[in-house]
Known about the structure:
CATH superfamily of the largest domain: YefM-like domain
Shape: elongated
CATH topology of the largest domain: YefM-like fold
Number of strands: 3
Strand order of the largest sheet: 1-2-3
Oligomer: single chain
Helix content: 40-55%
Strand content: 15-25%
Number of domains: 2
CATH architecture of the largest domain: 3-Layer(aba) Sandwich
Radius of gyration: 23 Å
Order of helices and strands: EHHEEHH
Number of helices: 4
Structural class: alpha+beta
Amino acid sequence: MQEIGAFEAKNTLGSLLDRVETGEEIVITRHGKPVARLVPNRAGSDRSKAEAAAERIGARARSLKAGAFDWEALKADRDAGRP
Length: 83
């Protein structure tokens, strides 16, 4: 992973993007301190991981025995006091 200053990154963005497309990661610094990282875009998401996370959230909610979620009550609370 290469570090590059913000001024140089601004002036060479096109070539930096070319390098990132090939899989390289680049850290952009300001006054020697890292402030951003250019990384390749990993298209798509892992649906199985998202479903597993949703199941863990649901299991946690069930374990807390919070009861059913009432959208209408939430909307009424949200709108309370509004003209």
